[in-house]
Each structure stands twice: as C-alpha cells, then as structure tokens.
Amino acid sequence: MDRDRILLTPGPLTTTLRTKLAMLKDWGSWDADFNAITARLRGRLLDIVDGHDTHVVVPLQGSGTFSVEAAVATLVPRDGHVLVPDNGAYCKRAGKLTQMMGRKATVLPFAEDQPVSAAAVDERLKTDASITHVVLIHCETGTGVENPLADVAAVCRKHGKGLIVDAMSSFAALPINARELQFDALIAASGKCLEGVPGMGFVFIRKAVLDACAGNSQSLAMDLHDQHVYMGKTGQWRFTPPTHVVAALDEATAQFVEEGGQPARLARYTDNCRTLVDGMAKLGFKPFLKPEVQAPIIVTFHAPAHAHYDFKRFYDGAKQRGFILYPGKLTEVETFRVGCIGAIGRNEMQQAVNAVAETLAEMGIPDGTPAR
Ligand SMILES: *Cc1c(COP(=O)(O)O)cnc(C)c1O
Predict the structure, then answer these.
(1) Whose alpha carbon is nearest atom 4 of ligand 1?
(2) I need a surface site. Which of 36, 80, 240, 341 has the fewest CB within 10 A?
(3) What string of pLDDT tens digits covers the 372 residues of the chain?
(4) Residue 360 C-alpha to ligand 1 middle, in angstroms?
C-alpha cells in the first residue's frame, strides 16, 4: 500500500501534507531564521490559552513525558509534596516520575471509568497541609475520560496550592484559558491535538512562580527555568533543537489558526467521536465510558465477547484496510482504543468503522457485542 495508513492513536497522529512538507528543509540551530520560527511558535502557543499576560511558554526536546518530568522537576521544590489524583495510566505515570524525581508523591485513587473528584481533592488538601502541588491529568488518555480541570483549579487556588496540568491530549481541542483558570504549569506536546509530529513538548509556566523555580531541577537537560532564561537571552534552545519538528509544528499551528482555532478543532473531533461511536454501536460495540464523561479524544471500546476475537488479528485486519488501532490499557477488562484526533474527519472515521465491520466478518464474528 503506497498511501500512509490513518493513525487512530493518541499520537503520533495523521498529519497534513503541508505539515509533512514543512520538514523538507534543514535549519541551523543558531540561525536567525530558525530562531524566528521558535519565537513565532511560542507566541502562537500563548495565543491559544490567551496567556501572554500571565504565562511564559518553554519548549523542550523529547516526547510529552519528558516535559511532564521537566515541569515537576522545575516547579516543585525538592522538599515539595505532590498530590496526584489517579484515574488511569497517565496519572500513575505522573505519580511514578514525581517519586523518581525525589519529590514526595501521594496518589489519590479513583475508579478508572469516572472523573477524579474535585471535592475529594479539596478534602485531602484540607487534611494534609504538607501538600504543595497537585498534578492533574486533564484528559486521561488511558481511557479517554475528561477530568474536571476548572473545579480542581478552583480548589487549588482556594488552598493556595500549585497546580500542574498534564493537558497533553486535550490542549488545543478542549478549551483552556489562562485568564480564567489559575495554573502554575500546563504541559502539552507537538504530536497531539495541534497535529504536529512528535518530538517536543512545551510547558506554560505562570510568570508569578517562574523566579522561584530557579535551582529546583536536579537535572540539567530537564531544567525549564534554565531553558527559559537561555532562550530569553539568545533566542535559541539550550541544546540541539528538533529543528524539523519545530518547523512542522509551526506549520501545523498556522493551519490550526486557519481552521478556526480551538473551537473548530473541538467541533471536528466531536464529530469524529460521534461518527465513530454511532458506527461502532451499529456493529454491537460498547464504549467503556458513559457518554457524559467521555472526552472526544480517544474512545475505549470493550472487546467483543466472541470466542474468535483476538486483538492481534483484529488489529492486523484493520491495518490491512488502512487503519491503525490502539491496544487497551486496562488491566481488568479487555478493551481496545480508537483515537478521534489528527488530520482526519468524518469520512475517515466512517471508513474506519467499515474496516472494523469487514475485519469482524473475516474473523467470523457476527458482531462486537461485549461480555455481559
Ligand atoms: C501522550 C500523553 C503523554 C505523553 O506521552 P509520550 O509517550 O511521552 O508522548 C502524557 N500524558 C498524557 C495524558 C498523554 O496523552
């Protein structure tokens, strides 16, 4: 097959030809032309959250997790104490990396099919004054559930605690406004809803807490304060930038603006999600989450109960037909996931449903009905 397959995954995503073509050029990392791209990109990122007055944005090399780790290391003092409300795999990852950075971490567990509770966070902050920061995963990509960012932000503000938001899979799709929402740091990456290619993250840091971040990081490469100061002085990244990734993200953000920004992107993803869920329902498939807690980013489906079902064969069948699915991340129930994000629309989602229908038929499975 000479056409790229459609990626129905939470990143890397299907990108536009324009974004891909932006990578066909070599840039010198010290060159003024490249520095101008970095500066323009940082400005556009701040535009998206209306954050020019309140925040700076610091890009960092690496996948999204590198930026989460860097945000914790940079924002949280070494004797800090982080509360991590946990309703899924990315929450657990945030708790683990916080601990590995040498910060105290308390994980507050919730059910995987429910949003975390802001009231429970409030209660915990009331009873444990030693907590300095809360790390919240906005959209828990492990299941696709949306967590109550505004409510948790209000609770953190009330208690005077720092809030670090992993908005990796929600940024640019779900509304986030830095004027309405107080957060100390918010993390996203190039290869998610901005529809760039993977390879860099970026962290919005509240100006009011920036100076106090100096010297917190125990890591040289992950020190966002240092990256910010250096970039401010020189216009350059501290260490080799992912030049092609930056150029692609610059082009992707231009298209994001042309499309109509965050509201337009949310509308397209919402339509993708509805097309997918409705089409799959006709085949008997059942989503793991209730519709009211489902973010239009990625949908977890129960695996069919039929004895012939096998994820590997199912995956291969969809792949042969041009679609890349994603395995489930739950330990107790068998599931698979289908992303709704990327440079795709209703037609691609409908074709994906058709590919699933054909694959089921090929496997001798009459429909996708899960176990009771
Ligand atoms: C994608 C994602 C990350 C980062 O994962 P990487 O594999 O490091 O890019 C972190 N948090 C959430 C919620 C994500 O969706």
Answers:
(1) 64
(2) 240
(3) 568 999 999 999 999 999 999 999 999 999 999 999 999 999 999 999 999 999 999 999 999 999 999 999 999 999 999 999 999 999 999 999 999 999 999 999 999 999 999 999 999 999 999 999 999 999 999 999 999 999 999 999 999 999 999 999 999 999 999 999 999 999 999 999 999 999 999 999 999 999 999 999 999 999 999 999 999 999 999 999 999 999 999 999 999 999 999 999 999 999 999 999 999 999 999 999 999 999 999 999 999 999 999 999 999 999 999 999 999 988 889 999 999 999 999 999 999 999 999 999 999 999 999 988
(4) 30
* Rounded Cα distance, 31 and 44, in Å: 20
Check the CA dihedral 192-196-201-206 and report its sign. Answer: negative
* CATH (one of 3.40.640.10, 3.40.630.30, 3.30.450.30, 3.40.50.300) for 17-258: 3.40.640.10
Nearest CA to ligand 1 atom 9: 64
| 336 within 8 A of 303, measured Cβ to Cβ | yes
Regarding the beta carbon of 162 and ligand 1, being less than 6 Å apart is answered: no
Where does 6-10+261-363 sit in CATH, by number?
Answer: 3.90.1150.10
Please, which residues bridge with residue 57 across strands?
204
Residue with tokens 């997918």: 276
Ligand 1 centroid to 315 CA: how many Å?
22
Measured from the CB, is residue 137 less than 6 Å from ligand 1?
Answer: yes
Which residues are CB-neighbours of 322 under 8 A, at least 6 positions away? 1, 3, 5, 6, 351, 355
Residue nearest to atom 3 of ligand 1 (CA): 64
